Amino acid sequence: MTRWNSVLTTLKSVSVNLAQLQITSVTNSEDKTNRKLLRLLADIKESLLLEVIAVLEPFDTATKCLSSDSKPTLHLVAPTKLQIAKALTLAAADSAVVAQLKQHLHDQLERYFTIQPLHYTATLLDPRLKNNAELLPPEARQQVLTSLRQAVSAVTDEDHPQTSEEDTQPAKKARLEDGFFASLYANPSSSPSNEVRIGSELLTLSALSEI
Q: What would the DSSP string read from start to end of 127-145?
């Protein structure tokens, strides 16, 4: 995704400064070194430029949501892929260029953005996401539950760390994250945040790394 973020940064810079760049090029049009730049700027269709920027912006948002050193983001990997895929859905109003770009990006997304079983496990342990059938279809959910039961049964009491009340408190969610994943979030369950019961065991998202 970082590759497309770099392209997005460049396109945004061009968009913001396009008028001034065109004026500068016209002013210096007699300069042979600027003739090529003038032709390139004259060919830029501002409306198309803005459409392309809109297509790429979800990649930048997704990168920021997943890039954190202070809170877990493993549970957001599968939701991120889903939200980007939705953003790349072809629309009737898309121009031929935008439709082609979306298709290319979707192909790249499927090829390089691989969701592993651990990602689904982490998603299940987030109470806002665990009941989302779009993220976790019944078959995938059952596979995750089976995997969790096996992991729990292999952990002894000595291996299982004691969690304090502070450990189970929900972390503050960034506004950017809330906005990007809002359509996937369900109302918090009545059980403590970040907990899911597997048989007689109560697991937390923060304990996932200990399994």
A: TTTTT-TTTS-HHHHHHHH
